[in-house]
Amino acid sequence: MGAIERKKRDFYWTSAGEPHAIRRKAILEKYPQIKELYGSDWHMCVQVTLQVLIQFGMLFYVRDLSWPWLVAVTYVVSGTINHSMVLAIHELAHNLAFGHNHALANKVFSIFANLPIGVPLAVSYKKYHMEHHRYQGTDGLDVDLPTELEARLFSSTLGKVAWLFVLPFTYFLRPVFVRPKPFSMMEIANIVVQVAADFAVYDYFGGKGLFYLIGGFVLGMGLHPMAGHLISEHYIFNRSNETYSYYGWMNMLAFNEGYHNEHHDFPAVPGSKLPMVSKIAPEFYKDLPTHDSWFGTLYNFIFRDDVSPYSRIKREKKANQQNVDLFQ
């Protein structure tokens, strides 16, 4: 992975480029048939539509709950489904529902998937997430990286707990401060549609209905087992690797987001086909460190003294200046 340097209370710095382009090239030289996995999978639309309908159907149930029960149901049910919706939006950001020739259809469907989340984020997420792949770990370009301020404030045990609670806000607001960009017309459409949906929910189901949806997003993206993937993917638990996969059952709810090394190696492969990547090329993945549990990842992140928001690989812009064709 190249030499890694780290000073106390600092990120891990490396002069090496991101590793996935190198492994992608090596795998394709040996297993060119992996390109047959490239494309899209419209079947994910069925799961997304079902989960959207469940969320809005739940509004008829939760409007009559007491607040303690509402919070519990919001955490368990809405937190899980809305986090799954965020991961569906991730798939759609890669045009993996309708293909790269139908980018608009993927964007429109991502706005639909966004509806139960309550916060308009789908279209904005796409424009920043592509840079996370192209410039992984590059300071000032990859907004998936925590800021210096976040790392300084939240590196103690209690600080890490607090940071996980506010992660929904720091994760989606960070790009505005680190790498601001003008709004596109599709982003404005995303906002208008979402605000209209939120007003309709409030009008028909009151504050409890709106809390169930937006609260599900906030709780589900924070200290929640599903949110373990936000830590497991790129935080350094083992200095030999900067991306980690998880192969457990929660991938069924996450569009196989846990197959994260495979995803970064081949972003053009739909989540449903990612398990086939490591089956075709097992020698490239079998010795990579993995996480066994997203809940366990959160526990270790909080209580291990050597892991904190600082535990990310960073590289200067020059280390990743070469743009990589993610779909070659």
TrEMBL record:
Q: Which residues cross the membrane?
A: 67-92, 104-125, 153-173, 211-231
- Residues in the signal sequence: none
Task: Identify one Gene Ontology CC term for this UniProt entry.
Answer: membrane
This enzyme's EC code(s): 1.14.19.17
**Superkingdom per UniProt:** Eukaryota
Alphabetical keyword list: Lipid metabolism, Membrane, Oxidoreductase, Transmembrane, Transmembrane helix
What is the protein's membrane topology class? Answer: Multi-pass membrane protein
* InterPro entries the record matches: DES1/DES2, FA_desaturase_dom, Sphingolipid_d4-desaturase_N
Q: Does the keyword Oxidoreductase apply?
A: yes
Molecular function (Gene Ontology), one example: sphingolipid delta-4 desaturase activity
CDD domains linked to this entry = Delta4-sphingolipid-FADS-like
Q: What is this protein called?
A: sphingolipid 4-desaturase
Q: What is the lineage of its organism?
A: Eukaryota, Metazoa, Ecdysozoa, Arthropoda, Crustacea
Question: Which gene name does the record give?
Answer: degs1_1
